[in-house]
Write a structure and sequence with these properties.
This protein is α/β, with parallel strands linked by helices and 329 residues long. The chain is built from eight helices and eleven strands.
Length: 329
């Protein structure tokens, strides 16, 4: 029996999603509630940078109330995983206080513990993991590591014994990278798709550059096969982290379409528009708005060549909105 597959993006608060993912809006527009009407999971990424107060978690729970099937996953604070000085008991308590409103409302699917590629498998690192697992015992923990030294049966057994889920990742493949897999340990299946921007993965000027990648349907299909195998055993979360200019939204909807959930697949319009503009056209189509295409040289929407907002123009003809999308980047 197949368990539920939840697909959604990592985060929802990106300035470069305005006008691409999000329609023109006023000050009361709720970005989270809007995305929760399309997806049944979102990974909360802001706690990675600062431990939120419980009031934030309570607010997020209220804002997804219209979708009773919705569950969050949440990143853990980077001080637990990236700070060489270690962490304190007060930090653990503060983060647990943040998690409790999510857990008590049955909106918490998984807590993501993420380590960088520099974190290697050793007796010392496993001791660090055990201390962190003990600090957050009782929550559905999942672990993302990126170095291949962890990808072996002994470490998978280590996670299974501690009831922690292995996070299967797609990333640019270097010699020592974790490879694509459908490994299951712990309470849930977990997949994170980071994109395959090989050139910018380590050598980038801005952090968003490494996530500037749009998966093709052909690249997603092997992952959908893995996800189905995982969901045969456990509820499975699939998070698209290639967030630059809304590409995560396109790939989340596309992955769900390929998986055969009966909802419209963004790939159906890929023949007419490409790149970040797919997001505009997809959401316009999903909202019942007509879509037409033009080239950059003749596009009446063009104001400047470097702004995604210039690639969308809404006009009203016979009472119907039409989005004109540039097909030339």
């Amino acid at each position: 029996m197949e368990h539920q597959i939840r697909v959604g993006p990592a985060g929802w608060s990106y300035s470069d999603w305005e006008g691409i993912v999000y329609p023109p809006h006023g000050s009361k527009f709720d970005h989270l509630a809007y995305l929760a009407s399309f997806f049944d999971t979102i990974e909360i990424n802001s706690p990675f940078y600062r431990i939120p107060p419980p009031s934030h978690a309570k607010s997020w729970v209220r804002r997804v109330a219209a979708n009773p099937a919705f569950k969050f996953t949440t990143k853990i604070f980077r001080g637990f995983t990236h700070d060489a000085a270690g962490f304190t008991g007060n930090e653990v308590k503060a983060f647990r206080d943040y998690l409790d409103p999510l857990a008590e409302s049955n909106r918490l699917g998984a807590v993501l513990i993420q380590y960088p590629w520099s974190f290697r498998n050793s007796e010392e690192s496993r001791g660090q993991l055990e201390r962190l697992f003990d600090g957050f015992d009782g929550y559905p923990l999942s672990l993302e590591v990126r170095h291949s030294s962890f990808q072996n049966d002994a470490f998978r057994q280590f996670l299974e014994e501690r009831k922690v889920s292995w996070v299967n990742i797609d990333q640019p493949l270097f010699h020592d990278s974790v490879k694509p897999s459908d490994t299951l340990t712990g309470p849930v299946g977990y997949v994170r798709l980071h994109g395959r921007n090989f050139e910018k993965w380590f050598a980038h000027g801005e952090s968003w550059e490494r996530y500037n990648y749009l998966y093709s349907s052909e690249e997603l299909t092997p992952w959908v096969d893995r996800i189905h195998r995982m969901s045969d055993a456990k509820e499975t979360y699939v998070i698209t982290n290639n967030h630059f200019r809304g590409q995560a939204i396109v790939n989340a909807r596309r992955a769900r379409g390929i998986a055969g959930d009966g909802r419209e697949d963004a790939a159906a319009i890929e023949g007419n528009v490409s790149g970040p503009s797919v997001t505009i056209a997809y959401f316009a189509t999903n909202a019942g708005i007509g879509v037409s295409a033009c080239s950059r040289s003749t596009c009446p929407a063009r104001v400047s060549a470097d702004s995604p907002l210039t690639r969308m123009r809404t006009r009203f003809a016979a009472g119907k909105s039409v989005v004109t999308v540039c097909t030339t980047e």
